[in-house]
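Question (not urgent): is this output format expected?
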Amino acid sequence: MAMDLPNRRSTTGAALALLALGALAPEVIFAQMHQPTFSCVNSGAVRVTCQGSFLDGTSAAGITVRVLDKHDRIVYVGTVDKQGRFSFRKPDAEFHIVFDAGQGNVVTVLASDMT
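Got this back:
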């Protein structure tokens, strides 16, 4: 009959857990680095200019951006250009901007938060 020696712990479970975490680490790191950044400024009385990119330097060109009113109705839809910019005519009423990079990577900018 086999006996466990006193003060000796099994490390099999811990080793398997570390291996699993090690296998996931590249995806986790990539997901953290591929976080979107998106900011907007009020460029005068009529226009709003936004800049979008990803922390890993990946271009945000082609990402859809929606401008919505306070009732979440679409006021304007466009895409980020090759330079990472998105510009639109400022609505007369309250609005917010949604940069949706997919896979849960959504950034919302309220008009009241813009400089």
